Backbone:
């Protein structure tokens, strides 16, 4: 019986990737992704080598260029990468470093050799980035020589070129272009470079980074002489409730009894603020996006120390629950910059560390130092304790409110009597459903009779809606008009403010409508109601505006009759255009309010998809929209006055017509 060789799985089926293919065919194994994140990480691997040199005391400046053609260059003023012949390995060092994974000068760092506290630890950086590049050019100055190398698609082109060099400068220059055949996206943004370099100067005090962007022609320089302390000052400005505390220490330990002992040193800077909150962790200069061991230590130590202070000073109410870390986090600005000679990263992308000793050492040290800090800084300690108690009670109130809101905003809309005067439509097809938000009960009759009940639902606004920019969430959610409308929408609310984020329940997948259409009279009162509804949507469900789900139904300004024909004009210009086509007598009148319109007219002018006019609410600039809403309806009296002076003339005709 013959077998299909394609499906055979035997000893000859096992293959191993060799040379450059180990990276080029599987970049995500090394870089964590074959997309832009992986491409960015390939750049960081080269940058980390330059940083390690500078931190060892060789060079105080690193130059980076982002070229128009997506290539990158990094130049340092360190000792220069060793690339000449290596007697021990019987190979050239350039072959080991640029063409062999897991080769480098950082493996004996725990034994006191080069790079004691290294960012690039795994010997992958130079080789992996070289393998994943379209080309790489290398120039190195050291030992009185200039060394040159070129690689193409992971292969060396031309060997090592070595020429005498009499200058005193040493260092390494590497230029390469990430390969589109390896990464799905090689267009690394300027923001990535700026953010990465800023983070590196935070944790490498005094090291200067100069970034040149060929595309924009801009040059940026990053340097924090005092490192993490300068960074905290920049984050907080003068908006703090305590002075910046700075701690640093060195220690030794091991993760397990049978594991080697290693060195650990770290700096901690923190303060408290009622305006901003940030926690960032860096280890061996790498930003730990997910923290790991240091983050766990901070959680444990800060809750322990602050809870102890609250208890000792009788700041809890009787039977009040203990604080949670989220109550502290809301007001904490903290940066930890740590280094160790042995590091256990979760993976090669180095976003989290898992060292047991680092967690235990930091926890014990922070508990002790926080207790001393609160004792020696009583005034700051009292302010911190008071703010955290406020955060705790705000969280607990928000949780109760969230539960109440969830009950209010959920429910089966087939039970129409759950929302007073809401009129549903028949179809269950979300892509067809339209919700008309109409002004008052007077408009209900003509709108209900004029609609297509198959796909158009009606929600009346009863009475004056709150200005959602001027009142708190508690008052907002006490308004039956707002909660009923949110219930009908079905998608919950978006809340990101620091002390109320637990109220957030938004899920656009639960939205019950394809279009939300605001339908009001074309007069001053109608415009005000429309603006208040838009303001409510902007504050509570801004994604609906971003996703272009919100519309305004344009109502005609004038009704013109000529014999048996009736025309509707939506602008002054349209009146002129219509009148120019009418022969004979005509009658023109201001269009009636929605409540006085006949159902047939409502269908023709406002509800028929074939003839109506809808204005899509689609803010190109959300920040500008927020400014205008806040200026018109918020507390900025001087801004509102200036706006009326500059633009009020546009609305004079409307007030005269109303």
Residues:
């Amino acid at each position: 019986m013959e077998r299909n060789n394609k499906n055979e799985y035997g000893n000859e089926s096992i293959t191993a990737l060799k040379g450059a293919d180990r990276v080029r065919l599987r970049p995500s194994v090394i870089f964590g992704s074959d997309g832009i994140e992986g491409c960015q990480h390939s750049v960081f691997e080269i940058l980390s080598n330059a940083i390690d040199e500078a931190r060892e005391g060789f060079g105080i400046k690193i130059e980076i260029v982002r070229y128009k053609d997506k290539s990158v260059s990094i130049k340092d003023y360190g000792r220069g990468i060793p690339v000449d012949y290596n007697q021990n390995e019987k190979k050239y060092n350039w072959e080991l470093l640029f063409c062999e994974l897991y080769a480098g000068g950082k493996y004996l760092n725990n034994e006191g050799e080069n790079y004691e506290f290294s960012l690039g630890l795994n010997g992958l950086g130079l080789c992996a980035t070289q393998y994943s590049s379209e080309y790489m050019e290398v120039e190195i100055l050291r030992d009185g020589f200039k060394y040159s190398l070129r690689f193409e698609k992971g292969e060396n082109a031309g060997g090592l070129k070595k020429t005498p060099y009499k200058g005193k400068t040493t260092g390494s220059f590497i230029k390469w272009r990430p390969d589109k055949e390896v990464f799905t996206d090689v267009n690394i943004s300027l923001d990535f470079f700026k953010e990465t370099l800023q983070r590196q100067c935070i944790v490498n005090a005094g090291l200067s980074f100069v970034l040149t962007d060929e595309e924009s022609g801009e040059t940026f320089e990053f340097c924090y002489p005092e490192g993490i302390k300068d960074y905290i000052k920049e984050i907080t400005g003068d908006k703090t409730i305590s002075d910046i505390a700075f701690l640093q220490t060195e220690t030794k330990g091991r993760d397990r009894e049978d594991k080697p002992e290693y060195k650990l040193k770290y700096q901690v800077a923190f303060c408290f603020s009622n305006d901003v909150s940030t926690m960032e962790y860096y280890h061996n200069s790498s930003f730990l996006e997910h923290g790991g061991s240091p983050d766990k230590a901070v959680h444990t130590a800060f809750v322990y120390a602050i809870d102890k202070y609250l208890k000792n000073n009788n700041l809890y109410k009787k039977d009040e629950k203990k604080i949670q870390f989220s109550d502290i986090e809301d007001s904490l600005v903290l940066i930890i910059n740590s280094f160790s000679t042995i590091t256990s990263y979760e993976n090669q992308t180095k976003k989290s560390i898992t060292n047991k000793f680092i967690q235990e050492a930091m926890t014990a040290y922070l508990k002790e130092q926080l207790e001393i800090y609160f004792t020696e800084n009583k005034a700051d300690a009292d302010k911190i304790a008071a703010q955290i108690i406020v955060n705790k009670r705000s969280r607990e109130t928000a949780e109760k409110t969230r539960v109440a809101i969830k009950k209010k905003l959920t429910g089966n809309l087939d039970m129409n009597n759950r929302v007073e005067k809401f009129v549903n439509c028949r179809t269950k097809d979300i892509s067809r459903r339209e919700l008309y938000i109409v002004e008052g009960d007077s408009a209900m009759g003509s709108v209900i009779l004029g609609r297509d009940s198959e796909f158009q639902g009606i929600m009346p606004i009863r009475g004056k809606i709150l200005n959602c920019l001027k009142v708190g969430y508690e008052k907002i959610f006490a308004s039956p008009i707002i909660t009923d409308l949110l219930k009908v929408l079905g998608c919950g609310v978006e809340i990101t403010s620091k002390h109320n984020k637990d109220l957030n329940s938004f899920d656009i997948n639960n939205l019950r409508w394809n279009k939300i259409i605001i339908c009001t009279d074309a007069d001053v009162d109608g415009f005000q109601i429309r603006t208040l509804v838009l303001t409510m949507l902007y504050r509570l469900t801004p994604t609906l505006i971003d996703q272009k789900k919100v519309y305004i139904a344009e109502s005609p300004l004038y009704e013109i009759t000529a014999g048996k024909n009736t025309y509707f004009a939506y602008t002054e210009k349209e009146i002129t255009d219509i009148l120019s086509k009418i022969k004979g007598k005509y009658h023109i009148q201001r269009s009636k309010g929605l409540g006085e319109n006949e159902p047939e007219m409502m269908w023709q002018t406002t509800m028929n998809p074939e003839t109506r006019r809808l204005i899509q609410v689609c803010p190109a600039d959300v920040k500008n929209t927020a400014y205008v809403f806040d200026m018109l309806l918020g507390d900025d009296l001087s801004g509102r006055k200036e706006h009326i002076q500059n633009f009020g003339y546009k609305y004079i005709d409307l007030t005269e017509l109303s």
Notes: The two ends are 92 Å apart (CA to CA). The longest strand covers residues 262-272. The CA atoms of residues 315 and 437 lie 49 Å apart. The chain has 21 helices and 26 strands.
